[in-house]
């Protein structure tokens, strides 16, 4: 069964969701295929109808989540009215997506921080897609006169992604004790005070 066919299969998605829960609780190396099968409510052998190995489960987990999340990011940014609104929407939706899927957030943080060899390609793909969105927003903002033109785009993109990831990491370390999305506007305001032209705020 091909990957595209798999992604429309309910059992495939159920296994990936179960894998996210098990990986986030146990860690990738401690987790077993049997634990994932139990969490998904399927037999161990069923796992191998969709995945070659535990490694493959992790790779496909990242691939599936990347496609799912960035489709929504793209839609949300496209709804924005101007660069400031698009930046606010991207940050808010990023935080909302990771709050809604805490298992994904934990696995993503764990694997990106140690830059797992298994998912290097997926991590690079996620960063590339995010940087493309940010580049569009920054360039539009420069054309609109709301974002400074004396900025090094590569540095700005890394600063923005790093800031959002740090906010998510802090939330995870707190045990998710507060509403992560409430950090969206303060974070956007802080970022705009650094990259925006004088007088630009989240309310611009």
Ordered list of secondary-structure elements with their pairings:
Blueprint: H1 3-7, H2 10-26, H3 33-40, H4 44-50, H5 54-78, H6 83-100, H7 102-113, H8 120-144, H9 153-173, H10 184-195
Helix pairs in contact: 2-3, 2-5, 2-7, 5-6, 5-8, 6-8, 6-10, 7-9, 8-9
Question: Biggest sheet: strands, sense, closure?
Answer: none
Alpha-beta classification: mainly alpha
Overall shape: elongated
CATH-assigned homologous superfamily of the domain at 55-195: Tetracycline Repressor, domain 2
Order of helices and strands: HHHHHHHHHH
CATH third-level topology of the domain at 55-195: Tetracycline Repressor, domain 2
Assembly classification: single chain
pLDDT < 50 runs, ≥5 residues: none
Second CATH tier, the architecture of the domain at 55-195: Orthogonal Bundle
Task: Count every helix, treating DSSP H or I runs of 4 or more residues as helices.
Answer: 10
What amount of the residues lies in strands? under 5%
Q: How many angstroms does the end-to-end distance come to?
A: 50 Å
Main CATH class of the domain at 55-195: Mainly Alpha
The count of strands amounts to 0
Radius of gyration: 19 Å
Mean model confidence by pLDDT: 91
Helix content, binned percent: over 70%
């Amino acid at each position: 069964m091909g990957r595209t066919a798999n992604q429309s299969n309910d059992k495939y998605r159920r296994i990936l969701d179960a894998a996210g829960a098990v990986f986030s609780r146990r860690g990738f190396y401690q987790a077993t295929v049997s634990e994932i099968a139990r969490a998904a409510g399927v037999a161990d052998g069923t796992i191998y109808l969709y995945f070659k190995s535990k490694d493959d489960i992790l790779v496909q987990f990242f691939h599936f989540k990347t496609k799912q999340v960035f489709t929504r990011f793209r839609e949300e940014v496209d709804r924005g009215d101007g660069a400031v609104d698009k930046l606010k929407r991207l940050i808010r939706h990023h935080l909302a997506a990771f709050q809604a899927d805490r298992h994904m957030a934990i696995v993503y943080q764990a694997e990106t921080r140690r830059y797992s060899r298994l998912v290097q390609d997926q991590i690079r793909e996620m960063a590339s897609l995010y940087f493309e969105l940010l580049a569009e927003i920054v360039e539009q903002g420069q054309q609109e006169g709301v974002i400074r033109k004396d900025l090094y785009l590569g540095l700005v993109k890394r600063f923005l992604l790093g800031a959002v990831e740090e906010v998510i990491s802090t939330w995870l370390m707190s045990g998710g004790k507060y509403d992560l999305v409430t950090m969206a506007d303060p974070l956007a305001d802080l970022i705009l005070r650094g990259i925006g032209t004088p007088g630009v705020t989240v309310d611009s």
